Structure formats: C-alpha cells, structure tokens
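Protein Record: Sequence and Backbone Structure Tokens
======================================================
Tokens: labelled as protein backbone structure tokens, with as many entries as the chain has residues.
Task: work out the structure tokens from the sequence, keeping to the layout shown below.
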Amino acid sequence: MNTVAPERIGKYEIRRLLGEGATSAVYLAWDPFNQREVALKQLYPEILRDRDHGRLYRHLLLNEAALAGKMSHPHIVQIFDAVIGDDEGYVVMEYVPGGTLDALTRPETRPGFDRLIEIIFKCTRALDYAFHRGITHRDIKPANILLVAPDGQDIRISDFGAALRTATDTTQISGIGSPAYMSPQQVREMPLDHRTDIYSLGVVMYQLLTSRLPFESDNNYSLLYRIANETPPPPSELRPDVPEALDSIVRRAMEKDLDRRYSSWAEFSHDLALAFRNRSVATAHNVVPDTEKFQTLRAMPFFREFADAELWEVISLSLWSHAQPGTVVMKEGETGDHFCFLAQGEARVRKRGRLLNLLTPGDCFGEVALFSAGGGVRSASVEATTEVAIITVHSRALKRASDTCRMHFYKSFLEVLATRLSLASARIANL
C-alpha cells in the first residue's frame, strides 16, 4: 500500500512515512507540546471500518495504549499518547531511529557474536521486566525489536498490542502472532505464559546467527506443522563457526517441551552472560560488554536493591577500565570528583604509608571525598596488587541519574559507612 503522509494527525505534525504494513502506517511526527520527535502508528481507516477485522485491530491498539505509563524500562519503547475511536486510531510512542533487527538477519549484515549476545541479553532483561508485571508479548520477532543506532547494540522492544496480561487473562486472543516465530504452544492454541516469548526470542537468535529461520515452508499450514513436530538443525550445522555455547542456548530456548525449555528469563540471561566467558566467543580484553557489566553489578551487594532499569542507568553513567599490578588508582592528598568500585582483582588502601584495608571485588572506594567538607581531597591511596577491573562514577554523572537511582546510591553508601565504622570500633576495642 502506497500511503500518502498527511500534514497532521491530531496535534502531531507529520514529517515523513517511516514504514507501512497490512493494517497500519508509522510516521515520524513532531510533538509541538513536548518539543520532541515521536513515532506515530495509525491504523488505516479501511481497517477500522472492516466489519470482520476492525474490532480486533482496534482492540490490539487499545491493548498497546493501555500499557502507557505502566512499563518504564530502558529497553522497552515508551508509549506517550493514544486516540482510538470509530473512525480514527493511532498510538504515539518513543521514536527509535536505528531501524529494526530485520536489518541484521541478512548474511552480509549479520552481527558479531559479542554484539548478538548483547542484543539478546537486553531483550531477555526487558521481557523479564514485562513478565514481572504480568505481561507476555506474544509477537517477538526482529521487526518488533528496534535498534537505537544502526551499528549499535542498544535496543527497544516495541508493539505490545498482542500482549497477554496474565494477571487478568482478558486479552487471550487466538491466532495472534507471526507464524514463523510462534512457539509450539502458540501454534496449538494452548494457554500461554512467558515461555512462549522465550521460544520466539530463541527463533530470533537462531535467525541472527544463521540468516535463516529454523522452519521455512511455502504455506502456513505446513510451517505450523513443522514448528509443532520437527526439530530444526542446530545453528552450527548451517554456520560452522557458531560457538557450541550459543548452539546450546538456542536449542534450550527452542525446546518444544516446556519442561526442557528455559523456565525463566533469569536462566536465559545467565547462560548468555556465561557465553561471554567462554573463550569461543572472542571479546577484546579492554572492552567490557554491557551483558557482563550488568551481571557484575547484579552480583555486588552494594547494588542489591537497584532494579534492572537502575542498573542499566548505572552502566550508562559509569566508566569501566583495567589496571596492572602496582598502579596507583587514587593518591592520598590529590583532589577527585569520582568514586570507584572494584569489579575484579585486589587492591590495598594505605594512609601515610600504613596499610588500612584490602579491597576485593564488590568494594567501593573514594566516595568519602564526595561528601566531605575537604573539597574532594583523597584521604588515602589505593594501589592495585593484582590486575584489576575498576568501575568509575563521576559526581557530575551521578547528578544526572534519576532520583530513585541516586536514592539507592546514597542508601548503599550509608550501609558501607556503617559497616566500616562498626569494624573500626571493633578494632579499637581489641587494642
């Protein structure tokens, strides 16, 4: 369908057509009230007037609009506004300029293994967030996973119109989804939960690895039969350089038997994170993938009360680096506007040459200078005793963080301070 872009839809100024499908068109639009670019998805008028399908697609648009404000996650597209009536229906959402994962499914544009794992990992975390709010997407496919930048790995999951809200079970509509990405349970129209999305994301991963779908057919009937009854070849059979770890992840995500499939998004995420540590997935030593950063922060007691969204925020505002043994990471008497965490290795803290403490992974240091009246002067030196990985957060970056994220930082700092005072008191008592 060759859609002619209108000049305006509601209060939104239409700039250009971004894409069109069988039921709707998506435009780049300008929101004059909030002074920002947005994506506006509009149902075709003839779809709304269709006696057989109008009600269904109006319902799907309502379903998507109903999630506005209910999900706030850095890897889920934000819904800003919606208008749905008898003659007009559109949803206004965050504009994500990098295109969709469809662009990465061709052999010549296939992502490297490290980038692929980062993309899928972020999908698992976003869908786990949705799952804990009682939402199953039901239409996971490359076209519904948007890239923030064409050559990047940040993503946004979109199009929750077909979502099943398991808490109320009011939106279970049969036949919804894209056939090639449907789970066997979806094909058989069985009751669904988050494991149908796990299967579908496994299919997306399979396609990104091989540039082929696991099941292909000339007609939907044959395709659905194959999904329900056949086992696809492992990705490495189609592409020999695929690491065994990724073969295994795809196979488990796409298990037909629910008891053998990943039972949770956490399990799926965990195996993806482990794949980074497998030597068959080559990652430059001085580059820390976001997947590994997330897992590192999640394992630290300091960040135990941080939600997933806040951990992604910490990743975006922090710097990650390595240092060799003997490196003085902080020097007594110097000024500094940042604090650090030890992610790997060991370091020692000295004051006037006297050993004060040994730092191990998870410990923070340098934060006292940020809150002292001394203008950020370091009260001790920190020296690496082994090769170390260091996470650095500058005070100006922390000021840009959300109120909730900053609150969790300050609360954790208080717990660290209380623990140190308690240990110091115990040492003094034993003198």
